[in-house]
Write a structure and sequence with these properties.
The protein has about 550 residues and is α/β, with parallel strands linked by helices. It has four domains: about 5-225, Rossmann fold (3-Layer(aba) Sandwich); about 230-320, no CATH class; about 330-470, no CATH class; about 480-560, no CATH class. The protein has 23 helices and nine strands. The strands form three sheets. A five-stranded parallel β-sheet has the order 2-3-4-1-5, with helices on both faces. Helix 13 (about 330-355) packs antiparallel against helix 17. The protein is globular.
Length: about 550
Amino acid sequence: MAERNVVFVLGGSGSGKSSLVKAGLIPSLRAEPITQRVGVWYSLQFRPGEAPSARFVQAFVDDIIAPIIDRAKDVSVKKLCYDALRKTFKLKGVDENDSPEAVLSQCLKAVEQLLYENEPDAKEGRIISIDAVRSIVAKLYTLDTILSGAATAGPPNLLIVLDQFEEVFEDDVGELDRKQMIALVKSIYNDPPASLFLAVTARSEELHRCAEHDGLAKVINGSLYLVDLMGKAELAKAIQGPAKVVLASWGLASRQPFTETALEALLETYRAGDRVLLAADKLPLTQHLLPIVWDRAVQRWSETDPEELQVEASDLQAVPGWADPKLGTLRGCLNAQADRILAEAMASAEKRWQVIRSQPGLRRNEADRRGADTRAASLARREIGSLITVALTLLAKRDDRGNPKRAFASLAEILDASGVAERELDSRKQTSISAEIIEMTLGFFMAAGLIELTPDGAELKYTVVHEAFIRGWNLYQELWKDAQDREEQLIEIDRAVGMRRAPSNLWSPIGLLNWINAENEVWARSIISETAMTGLLANVFGDDRTFSTGWCRALLARSKA
């Protein structure tokens, strides 16, 4: 970045390109500024998602403004921080008596007015102004000058980290938003503004998509940094580095966090992953494993009070799934943890379900009135399992090679696709129970670092942290494959129906069965097998269906688009 304002970091999935920028480039810029760039370094990080412009705006607020408001919790600097924000963004009526939430809300509105090019009601969606982004460093100069009491080392610098750039090519991204984000990248490269820098990460598997847009290949060819998969030395450093930081914070900076045997076992586990994993999944699953190993070691330390705090081989072996004979260690540990989290989430959700259902005055449908407590418990497990199935299914989609990749889904979108929520809506005109159960269960996976909730335009959306979670957890693979099969069967039936006369109520259990059993039975059964019929009746058409009729209609509409 000493030579150019844009660097395009390219690497395969799981190569560590995002970590290289976030944990390597950004700290280095702050610790050892580039020559002639001695001013303070600000950074904002975002992924395009489905609304790149909205995510950029939110990232500016979260990464630049929110830390200043958080700093204002110290009463000795509160007035200074609020004054800096008020003068920089021309806020009205902000004073020391305002809550941090109120100030943040005003700042968000001011930043939206500053950065957006069009009005909130624009039919094509709001997009950022490239000119406003290019000139935003001037705002940071004002902010930095006030906060430092004019004791700045030089003009501030802003590093924009555009992570997972390939997401701008997804069909869910608006065409105007996609073009504007690509134009922003080209603008910063072709006409570099003073003190504004851009680090873009992208998967090498998606590089061909860049050639579809005029001028983007020029940017990549002139700013490329190719990331290779980690070697043994780099991996050893990555394993020990975070642990050393923690030990240093405990006053144990000189200690080695792992015994030689434990470190070698982790390195061998990573290498052995070649036999059971895609290369792209080894690093993410190793990252998933390390905190579990650390927690086991901390637990042992608290129980035995050893003289030296080191992670030992016994701590690795105590992790459930270690050295799994069928899955290997990385997948074995992921499956053991994910299965445990699911069981805990289900147990908590079942308790909450029973509490909600037992509330006085709550209307119950026929299924709720069936028999004994054991029947009710069975119903709860089935309904909660259906909600989790829909949620996880919506967080994965098929790439152009037919493999699963992560997708984004809001709580509202999950509810719309859920048969449980659809039945609840029919009986109670609301989906509060389903919504609470979904948020509760996904919260368990979020706490484990497997799922995250990220801003996407005006709403928050769930997504998996990495596709390795989908590919590595056996149950997730089964759920995703089953959903893919259902989709293909629905589309195939729908196309077949369009070629022959069919009853108007085809998309119901009785209608479908009548159609199959009619005079065209032989032909119909050549379209849908007995196994497929059983699956569709359970998941799409049945009274206890997993997916909603709305999900079915949306799927068929997309298939015809």
